[in-house]
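Subject: mismatched residue count in predicted assembly?

I count 662 residues in my input, but I want to confirm that the predicted structure covers every chain. Input:
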Amino acid sequence: MSAQVRDADHILETRGTRRDLGAHVVACTFAPDGMAAFGLGDGTLRIATDGDWTSIPAHEGAVLALAADAKGLVTGGDDGKLQRIADATVTTLADFGSRWVEHVAATPTHIAAGYGKRVALLDTAGKLLKTLEHPSSVTGLVFDAKGKRIGASHVNGASLWFVAAKTDNPRKLEWKGSHTGIVISPDGENVVTAMQENALHGWRLSDGQHMRMSGYPAKTKAMSFSRNGKWLATSGAESIVLWPFFGGGPMGKAPTELAGGDAALCTFVACHPQHEAVAAGFSDGMVVLADIGSERILPVAGPGGRGAITAMAWHPDGARLAFGTETGFAGVVDFSKQ
Amino acid sequence: MSASQTPHQVPVTVLTGYLGAGKTTLLNRILSEQHGRKYAVVVNEFGELGIDNDLVVDTDEEVFEMNNGCICCTVRGDLIRIVGGLMKRRDKFDGIIIETTGLANPAPVAQTFFVDEDVRARTRLDAIVTVVDAKHLPARLADSHEAADQIAFADVIVLNKTDLVTPAELEAVEAKIREINRFAVIHRADHANVPVNDLLNQGAFDLDRVLARVPEFLTDDAHEHNEDVTGLSFSVAEDLDPEKFNAWIGALLAEQGQDLLRTKGILAYKGDDRRFAFQAVHMIADGAYIGPWRPGEKRESRIVFIGRNLNRPRLRRGFEACRA
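Triage response: the counts match. Full output below for your records.
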């Protein structure tokens, strides 16, 4: 290991904990008890407890989606099950048979699970409230910041549903092509999808204005709005690409690019829950924290030997960051640690 | 593409065939045979599968058009998602088998393996296997476009239900298949009894092997076809100019991509001692160097077209004009 790489691992070594979990890290999040949780390709959920991390068998095949809510953790798997994990016990909330549960999102009051063309909306106890139908398979699922609407991406656009609506007619956001992921801005004003053709598409909801953001060398797999909604951080380029959602942007504006310079692709982004900063992971395993205003870059974990970053999550208090890679390397860093 | 094939790329076999041809029987046979290998199976008609396989994925064929609706650039969005999901599993498997619906056009499946960067990185299209019904094929060819397309796309053809036809009928149906696709390997079968080793891990998209199978005598101009879909092959003894070839093939695919179901070539570029492999499905093309010419191998450029409305003299002149 070179001196530079050792330096790049300084934060992880002095303020972090790490494990080799041995299976693809599909998703990570923080449970309501504050523990970092990792959903893996071997079907287990690993909890970053002291000593040996707890391993909880959650699915027969692979964990495909993970979310935290007030009661604990919710996972979806390629065994067709939607599971609730609380107090280290697994309860099946729903079983969708041969359909993979590829997307899970949660608010304090609701759980949404995407399987095939459908999204099941459940209450936190697991009672099915309604099933939302889409024209093709759901490829991304997100609640808005208030938990009042659900956005789902699919072929030829996205559908926006009201959680509490009695009649189930979504607002259809249309744009030809395959949309592969979705985010909603914190103010609920903008919906952005990632597309198969290495580009993003957006809709401003107030007036239906379309937004097109392109120029990526690879597909964008992660998108994250900054806390105040001014910036949309994205993966898919050899830097963190940030689109300005202010001053008339992103239309006609060039994005800001941070932490570029290496050949490695940015594979994951997660904006800080309080400050105008973004954590980003790269295809060579490097993790950095970038301050958007000052453009300062803090290395968190060094590149090499750990595979591409496939998951990242902040604790809501903004002090801790969890991340994992395709080879099963996982880390939790505490920035507040003295 | 051979050059970019790495050991961890999972081979994918696409199983096509008209309704009732025996696709599901063949799939059950593959899965029940004791071969000690593990396959992930992607099916559309869940429930027909009689074999317990813990890696069966149920999907709806979701075909979408790339690049703002060009109908030649269609891909299977569901496959992109499924391949991505399967690659996250720890318990790895030896291959993926994708069963298409009876009426499916094989182009979007094949194109998916050219177009999507993640799919290309993790898998390689091993072969398209088409099951045809010896008794009913003539009727299917007469009443559907898809039946001919499925044969045209095939690397391997299972000519099934041979027990239901006379030897003369069998000869006739095989001749009909040859008129559409002279380049595929044909296995005669009843009750889909073809050994798994003749179907999986064929490396049929290894152009190398595909073109090695093209018999010399088929390159003559004497044979004429009446069938809608035909195959033509040409060879040029002299080295080619890559710029001339790219200009010609680019224009040809742009103009006639819809008619050209599959195009494959092994090319000798001037000043390069490696073989260049080229292939296309409709207008989606791909090419890479695949290593040096082997000792004793004749250094020449060969190209194969399978499609409709192929103008033999024009294609020949075009290919020959690519000489350096």
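The mean pLDDT of chain B is 83. Marking this ticket as 'not a bug'.
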